[in-house]
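DM from R.C. (forwarded with permission)

"hey, sorry to bug you on a friday — could you get me a structure for this? deadline for the figure draft is monday and I only need the backbone to look sensible"
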Amino acid sequence: MTRNPQFKVFTGPMFGGKTTRLLSAIERYKYQQKTVVLFKPSIDGRYSREKVVTHSGQELNCICVSTAEEILKNSAGDVIAIDEIFAIKGAGDAAIKLFLSGRDVLVSSIQLSSSAEPFEEMKKILPYATSIEICPAVCSMCDNDAYYTQRLTDSKEQI
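My reply, with the result:
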């Protein structure tokens, strides 16, 4: 039986639970005895430098990277997982290359900036996704699902 590789994307605004879903998917692969390599952008110093950590405290060891080349160089697992892919230049191309080589790829990332501009890496990978899970946050003003990130400062700087 031929197995089709999976390219799973967890996306939505900040505080939507994307990383929680990513770590849950990784756990499932580990139950299947798959080796998983998890990456996060080296500029992401939230909670930990050497772990991906959810807002609720769930954590998993990872490799911090600044470039797509570092992902390709360190991708010796059955499954490649990338947290916040939008913040790693060229990571979309690396993820696509790994997927097309037969690897399962898992990605969590916001898809749009607070000014509603799509991030380049997300534009690249979405056509290849075998599943896309939209992870809404909860609006702090009305308690409804929130699908977009709102900037709360006057700064125009994009991360």
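R.C.: lifesaver. The chain has a mean pLDDT of 87.
me: no worries. The beta strands are 7-11, 36-41, 51-53, 59-61, 63-65, 79-83, 104-109, 131-134, 137-138, 145-146.
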